[in-house]
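Obj.: predict assembly geometry.
Materials: sequence records (below).
Method: joint structure prediction, all chains together.
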Amino acid sequence: MQKRNRLKNLILFILFVAMVPLTALAWLSYLDTSSVPEDSIFALLYQRVTYGVSGFEIKTGNNPAAMPTRIAIKNEGITNGAQYHEASVSVLYEAMYQTIGKALAKQGEFQSTDLADLKQSLKLDGIYFGYEGSLPISLLSNWMGQTSKDEIATDIIWLDENGTLYIHTMNGFKKKSTGIKKWDIDLSKLPMNECIFAADDDMFQKIRPDTLIFENDIVQAEKYSASIPDFLDAQNGTSLTNLLSAFSYDLDVNRYEENQGQTMVFVEDYSTIHISKDGTVIFNAYANEGGIDVSSDPEYANELTVQMDLAITLVREVQNSMGDTSQAMLYAITQNDEEKVFTFIQCIGGVPVKTETPFAQLVIQNNKLMEARFQLKSFNQTGIQTPVIPTRQAAAASNNELFRLMLVYTEDEQMNFTAQCVYRF
Amino acid sequence: MQWGKIKSILIAILFLVDAFLVGVLVVKWASEEQREQEMFKNLQIVLANNNITIQNIDLPKEAMMPQLIVDQSRTDELKVAHKLLGEDAVQINSDNSLSFESDLGEVSWNDSGEISAVITPENYKKPDESSIENQASSLLESMGINQSGLEINVNGFTAVASFKTAGYEVFNRNLKIKFSDDNISINGRWTFSEPYATRNNLYSTYNPIDSIIWFAGQKKVNEIYDITAGLLLINGAGSQMQLSPVWRIETDNGDFYVDPVKNEIV
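Observations (raw structure tokens):
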């Protein structure tokens, strides 16, 4: 009797245990994983089980939307650096961003200072980052893995050996003490060339003192031709699909022609996309419902870093839809009580491209992307090298100490882009 | 209380539940098998209409592949260059690439993450064919390339190193290491950073039959040997590269990579 009872207990146990995986398998076999919300626990579990923990990561919020175009480090009085060369600047940035990030995130108010003070400081050892646009410190420090609430925008960062941090704002130069006086950076293997700051040589007193002047300067640069992507070409429907999907539009939404067939307008319930043959793409939401959500979590949607993440992701998706491999770089953020406008420029190999209208402008209102304007073009190498005035000559010829030198691609009438050395505030 | 009877009833109920669940799974499996066979037959008809034959291959099931991005790491590329060329390596100025040279040779990484290197290590002697795998493995380790899951395939005096991402082969990411009489050449494309996805664009499901049917319409081949899901490294905006899901279709006219999203041959 007892033996029979044990047998029943065993069978009960086996049947019960078997029921659990069978139920799970039956449920999973009818589940369409593509319809599972991407943020759900099941989706995360599926991803982890299917792809493994080390397969890839999910990353948001710290994607740099702008990189310096000029970086230098002065050590024991000798300055080395790189400028307008994406590969070299990128390596220098990797080696130095943590030090600069910590300096930016240090507590303390910036005090106004003048050019003479910066000039003196530049004669000390230190680290220099130069950006093309003026960007908020909160964003720059976030991209460098640090946190700062400072919204002051700057286009240069100079940290000297006394721990004083200098920035350049629309209202002049400012500085603050950070206490960061030492950094451990192995300079021996970095791709740098010897250079000086204009402040180091009396010959260059009529140019902004943070201008970098190289011995081995760029003396010639590749000439590029530009082509406009034709999203309306019937043979090119794939790019159009990707472009529309960047704005969460399907290919089969309602559409009509404007401008004698030069513009196609795609219409959703509360928004439109105008795509023109001249490379103009305009997304416009005319009601809040048509805007693209900055974040599914309203708590974070108002944060600049999260808004920035949406902006740069959208810009890169639009670039990828046309196979554009140029670097889109955040140039400016303007804001008032109602909206923030993010302006992007394009760079070729680390050299900014100057155009009449910005490459991209995105407008965020009420935590939604309400407008996006793109002037799309892609650049093709021509194999022709054009001469560039060496910075040494251009710096010596300058007559305004508030201007610095900048390398920039400018457009001619045939839509060719050649590199030029120009003065810039 | 008659526990014996209660247990018997519970056993009967659990047995019925388990049997029902097994039945559900068997029916599901059988219907999928039948559907696949029907689809395979239909596929053969479509292919026959395009004068294409297909070998008796096991068609892969739908593949769920992530849309991934990987950043080009210039710093890691620089480290590899220095490890190959030694501490004395000097930079050669060139457009958009990181190029170095030393007494040991030249190494250049271009802006697509492609390396082109020719080096002659000190006291270099061409190794035996039987030791190529070990030699390649040592060389990769000395370059700092030792990813988990690193695979090395050898063909004569050439070794090809690769590794998978998210469980899928990346078809155009590999390093070809060729041991010649006088030097070692290294060519190919490589990534160092961890791939990542954005929350909005994590993964999608791709059906191999859709891609084969589209590919058949292109009339580029007479026979299809195999089809495999994987990823292809494609230049993206700035320093980003995309790991784009593709089907590799092996045919009598070579391998073709079909992008299932854009329906185009990459």
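Conclusions so far: The mean pLDDT of chain B is 88.
To do: check interface contacts against the pulldown list.
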